[in-house]
Design brief:
The protein is of the alpha+beta class. The protein has one domain. It contains two helices and four strands. The protein has a four-stranded antiparallel beta sheet, covered by helices on one side. Helix 1 runs antiparallel to helix 2. The longest helix is centred in the first third of the chain and has 62 residues. The chain is elongated. It starts with 5 loop residues before the first helix and ends with a strand. 27% of the residues are buried.
Length: 197
């Protein structure tokens, strides 16, 4: 018959207690680690979308500025945004092509609710799928209120060259659901002086 000594019995109890302590610590720490990981993923995806929006807006305003008073300028701005953002473009809720008063010009307040004659054209993502014939300033054209052909491209004009602005609002859908459901609205704009023709 083998007898267990009191010392080895004490060691086994200590080992069981340590295992229990490790399990309790893991149960307390694991949710915090999971929350940290989910927050990192959520923040990273939102940051990626923000960079995509910024890059696309800057590229599209350069396109519009280089086209100057070409009748298809707004159409090409929308196509540039669509190709720059790829599949994420469908989450775009508003695109405003506007006449900025200066290089740091903000979007005219009236343009945040709709197109304003002589000031801006407001679009939605679906407008980028329209044929180019829906643009060009004709009757019923999408860009008729601030027609690209009226943009000042003559360096000798009394007020100088126009400043072209592009503003976008984009809904980034929250992915993990750890911080609520819904979306985060990303807004960005860029302004550039129209190139002389």
């Amino acid at each position: 018959m083998h007898r267990i000594s009191p010392a080895s019995s004490r060691g086994a109890r200590t080992l069981r207690r340590q295992r229990g302590t490790v399990l309790v610590e893991a149960a307390l720490i694991l949710p915090l680690l999971i929350m940290l990981a989910m927050g990192t993923i959520e923040y990273g995806m939102a940051w990626r979308d923000r960079l995509s929006v910024q890059s696309s807006v800057r590229s599209s305003v350069r396109t519009g500025a280089s086209l100057g008073n070409d009748a298809q300028a707004d159409y090409n701005i929308l196509q540039n945004l669509k190709s720059g953002m790829g599949s994420r473009f469908s989450n775009t809720t508003r695109i405003v092509v506007y006449n900025a008063s200066a290089a740091d010009g903000s979007v005219p307040s009236g343009c945040l609710s709709g197109s304003v004659a002589g000031v801006c054209n407001v679009y939605v993502a679906a407008d980028a799928s329209l044929a180019s014939t829906s643009f060009g300033c004709g009757a019923g054209a999408k860009d008729a209120l601030w027609c690209p052909t009226t943009r000042v491209t003559n360096i000798d004009a009394s007020g100088g060259l126009d400043y072209l602005g592009v503003y976008i609002t984009y809904n980034h859908g929250l992915i993990t659901g750890s911080f609520g459901s819904g979306s985060l609205t990303i807004k960005d704009s860029a302004v550039m002086r129209v190139e002389p023709q």
